[in-house]
Amino acid sequence: MNRNLLICLAITIGIFSSAMAQQPLEKPSGRVLLTISGAIDNTNVDDKAKFDRAMLLKLGIHTVRTTTSWTDGVCEFEGVLASDIMDAVGAHGTIVTATALNDYVVDIPITDFKKYGVLFALKMDGKELTTRDKGPIWPIYPRDDFPELQNRAADKKWIYLLYKMEIK
Ligand SMILES: Nc1nc2c(c(=O)[nH]1)N[C@H]1C(S)=C(S)[C@@H](COP(=O)(O)O)O[C@H]1N2
Ligand SMILES: [Mo]
Question: What structural domains and CATH numbers belong to the chain?
């Protein structure tokens, strides 16, 4: 009897921890801000991972203070770490092909995200970003801390109006 109970418990824990390892994504209930496809392990709508604002915020909110090529002085950006999003979807590629609402497309090395602590900003100076001010998601590089980011070529990766990414 006790032995059966133990076996039951072991099986339950086994099933539970394998489900945890897969980290299944909940389904978005609000407006989808970001859709990720390609080389990912965790999906929630067909073969894609879709995030609404609440799902993004659950990944943990971070702040980056930096100048940008578009704004005056130092701005405070609030959002989620791109690397946390990559972990959440189980990305295992090298290149992120990012697409904006204005059809601009740029390839970003996935290693940028951890190397620079790239923030997917949802707010600037306390105000939610909208499509009128480069949102709803604007990838922010902490450019003030890295001289190699302080040029036009690096600015190409600041894809404002971001809404879609394919991991390759
Ligand atoms: N959504 C979007 N993001 C974009 C671009 C664009 O056209 N659309 N241009 C990129 C390029 S090529 C550069 S150099 C910088 C600055 O572009 P801008 O002068 O058009 O703002 O933003 C980058 N991010
Ligand atoms: Mo550019």
Answer: 2-167 (3.90.420.10)
